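[SOLVED] Need 3D model of a four-part complex

Original post:
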Amino acid sequence: MYLRALTGLAEDGTTTCSSEELAASAGVNSAKLRKDLSYLGSYGTRGVGYDVEYLRYQIAREIGVTQDWPVVIVGIGNLGHALANYSGFRSRGFRVVALLDADPSRKDEKVAGLDVRSFDDLEAIVAEHDVSIGVIATPAVAAQDVADRMVATGITSILNFAPSVLSVPEGVGVRKVDLSIELQILAYHEQRKAVSPGSEDAS
Amino acid sequence: MYLRALTGLAEDGTTTCSSEELAASAGVNSAKLRKDLSYLGSYGTRGVGYDVEYLRYQIAREIGVTQDWPVVIVGIGNLGHALANYSGFRSRGFRVVALLDADPSRKDEKVAGLDVRSFDDLEAIVAEHDVSIGVIATPAVAAQDVADRMVATGITSILNFAPSVLSVPEGVGVRKVDLSIELQILAYHEQRKAVSPGSEDAS
DNA sequence: GGCGTTTTGTTCTCCCGTTCACAAACTCCT
DNA sequence: AGGAGTTTGTGAACGGGAGAACAAAACGCC
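Solution:
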């Protein structure tokens, strides 16, 4: 998030910023920001602030977005389709190298300039492009099978959009994004606001 | 998540479950699950466990998914398109009542059985359907403007997919989903695994 | 009815992230 | 050169979530 805020500041022509400004851009407390940055090193100057470009590079280097990460997406339904076309991935160092779907009827489709290929091609694609990150955008019932297969081919990081809990071996990273859970959380607070107005919570 | 796990258990024909089983289904620790459920009340029976259907109803009632929530989606790009078609919303008590886009050239399109309408229709639609939840799927630069306009029309909960920090008045709930941040987090751990193997972290 | 077994509800403790507060360090102005 | 004003980096306090552990309660068996 800091990296993104810094990029925004750089585009506005800002060359230097204080922790207060950067924290406001990123939507966090300035003390937290300073402490977070202190884990990377002392890249600021007391009395002055941070050099936007310098700090931007240091964070980018630390989190590893200086290199290009090949990614495979499995499950080309509505969501997979959107992810394949999502320009934010490309611009942040991720390259979608293949789209896979178990449904053979989708094999003729071409999405975002890529052919939709059979899920059976996973091994070959991972080997060819040295893929370590996989995205699961399948229905919930298929997610665990896909994850198992991914792990078997050597993928060690999984981004799961399916609403199911994945079990993977130690050493494999999983992050889950659950779209309807997010809406449910909002609806919950909405309901509470309606029941007892005045005790709202900004989170 | 517990609600989803319970629904899964109910579909499998399970009528009763222990905190251990339910926790495994939801992917959490059983002590945490029991503590979470205790905030809602004492819906379990010691020595027996929880009645799946009864607990499912209690949670659903508490979080407010027993009612139907009308939702508007603004920004019908790839992501908005996918969200409009996403079946998970409908099945969890959310009804997409309108799709809005500022680009007039999209007005002819029909997505997921709904016409894409002008962003200017926001006020009328919110008033007509009593909408309190809005979804922002626009580019980052437009997100704040859309949020301001939403708040002005009376929307009090926003789900933001744009990679930007929204500032909203007190009392308005915002949740943010940032797809590329998730990938970046995975890539970061991936990079660390490559640098110092053996100190991997399961989170 | 009483005892052993099972499982919940809850307390206690630990740990980690967040925030406050302040010393150190740097700049600018006189 | 020196002091006033800023701003970073960090030690200390705070708060809250998560797990371990245990008492209370329900069931079943004898």
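Edit: Chain B touches chain A through 58 residues (CB under 8 Å).
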